[in-house]
Amino acid sequence: MITESQKVNYRHILRREFEKRKTKNPKYSLRSYAKYLEMSPSRLSEVFNGKRGISPEVACKIIDKLEFSDFEKNLFLDLVESEHSRSKMARELATERVREKTKVYSEVDLDTFKMISEWHHFALLEYFELPSASTDFAQIAQDLRLDIEKVPLAIERLLRLGLLTKKNAKYVPPSRLSTTPTDIPSEAIREHHLEMLSKAIKALQQQPVPQRDFQSLTLAVAREDVPLVKKRLREFQEQLSAELATSPRKNAVYALLFNFFDLTENMNA
Predict the structure, then answer these.
(1) CA–CA separation, 60 and 255 (whole Å)
(2) What are the Cα distances from residue 160, in Å, to 20, 139, 175, 212?
(3) Does 144 share its domain with 181?
(4) How many domains does the chain divide into?
């Protein structure tokens, strides 16, 4: 988990990215990583060992090269600034931002953050419900239109989190609804929904009508009734999920999005 007691710092994040690359390619070296980050191997080694730091300017270049979420980018920059900014006030402000971030995300470790924020983790859980689901990474990538390198990383993450188990050479998901928690005010959930909205736009543009269904409803409501609408939508979601869960004919993974938002948010504010 991301907690103050663990004293998370930007070096841990850099080292984790290096180890992730070595997992994919055991021959990947510190020299290769340093070259990718446009640093010398000796300097990167000193950064890892805590003998040298990096400037906020260098940190900005690094996060542009690494596949960080917006939360991870902001956390990385704040961690660097809290330690190395030339201004005492800037260091103190950055330290406070880190404290706030770790407080908000103390319930969500990095694996969970990635799992929630990146749509394909939930898609994989549903994919392995299909009788025809493959265990071949290339086939899974093709079926879900994913970059192949994302598949083993996501499966490994789901296994670590206990959301997948492997039995008889097959991946088995838990028998529960794969939805994002709605009571966590996290950047992870926002990123998840942004990714799903992006997928919906592509589906609207590219999928034939018999394969999809897009509808919209605009209505006047009392803002006090918004919790009621949310409750009804959740009830419908749970009912539909339970009804479809027992079907022996599953052969596709679909996404169902509910979008209910205020078109008059500045009215009577």
Answers:
(1) 35
(2) 14, 22, 17, 34
(3) yes
(4) 2
